[in-house]
């Protein structure tokens, strides 16, 4: 059951990520990180969860999180 929910969430992250990528002119992976954070909601997430669930390196996650933060400052 948990695996099914996780798979459905990943599918939603992908769909919302594509939408954000086009609408907000974000890079593909930055859009997916933002989508994951949005879908996780108030419960939040950890850096390690993002590495595991999004299947990316720590460096990739860190770089794109910093990029998203820089966008907010502008």
Describe it for me?
Helix 1 crosses helix 2 and helix 2 crosses helix 4. The chain has 74 residues and is mainly α. The chain has one domain: Arc Repressor Mutant, subunit A. 78% of the residues lie in helices and 0% in strands. The chain is globular and about 35 Å long. The longest helix is centred in the N-terminal third of the chain and has 22 residues.
Based on CA atoms alone, the radius of gyration comes out at 12 Å
Q: Classify the fold: give the CATH topology.
A: Arc Repressor Mutant, subunit A
What spatial form do the alpha-carbon principal axes imply? globular
Largest sheet: none
Total number of domains: 1
Summarize the structure.
By secondary structure, the chain is mostly helical.
Record keyword descriptors for this entry.
mainly alpha, 74 residues, 0% strand, Arc Repressor Mutant, subunit A, single chain, 4 helices
Blueprint of the fold:
Blueprint: H1 2-23, H2 28-40, H3 47-53, H4 58-73
């Amino acid at each position: 059951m948990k695996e099914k929910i996780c798979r459905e969430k990943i599918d939603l992250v992908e769909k919302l990520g594509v939408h954000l990528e086009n609408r907000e002119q974000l890079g593909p992976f930055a859009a997916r990180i933002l989508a994951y954070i949005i879908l996780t909601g108030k419960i939040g997430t950890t850096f390690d969860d993002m590495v595991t669930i999004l299947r990316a390196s720590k460096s990739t996650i860190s770089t794109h999180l910093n990029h998203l933060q820089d966008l907010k400052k502008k």
